[in-house]
Amino acid sequence: YQRRVRGCCLLGSEAAPMLAHHIISIWTLSYSLYQHRFGAEVTAVCFGAEVTNPSLQLRWFFREHNIYDTMIGYVNDYIFVFSFAFWRFVPGSYILYRALLDERTDVVIKGGAVILYLISIVFMHGVGKFFFRKYVWKMKKPEEKKVQ
Question: Which spans in the chain are helix H?
Fold first, then answer.
C-alpha cells in the first residue's frame, strides 16, 4: 500500500478516491496492528476491497496485448463489474453493519469502515458508468439517418 500511495502522490497517477482508499486502508491496518485488535474485521475488509484486483489487472493486460475487445475481455469485464458490486455491497454491507453495532469496536475502526464504504460507493459509481457506457448504452441501436 505504501508504494501505491507514493505513486499516487508523486506521479499524480490516481484520483482522490483511490488515494483516500489507500490512506484509510493503511490507517486502519496500522491501528489494528498497534491495538492488537480487530484483525479479522480489517482483514475481511481488505479481502473484499482487493478480491476484484486480479480481474482489474487482467483488463490492463488485455489492453496491452490488444485482446481487450474480444470475448475474453468482455467476459472479464462482466466478472469484474458484478464481483465488484457483490463483494463491496453484500458482505461489505454486512461487515459495516456488524462493526457499527458492536460495542467493542472503537470509533477509529468504525470511522474507517464508514469512510471505506463511502469510497466504495464512489468507486461503484465509476464502475457503473463504465459498464453502462460500454455495454448498455452502446448496444442500443442508433436511429437511422435519413438520406437527403
Answer: 2-11, 16-35, 39-50, 53-64, 71-89, 91-101, 107-131
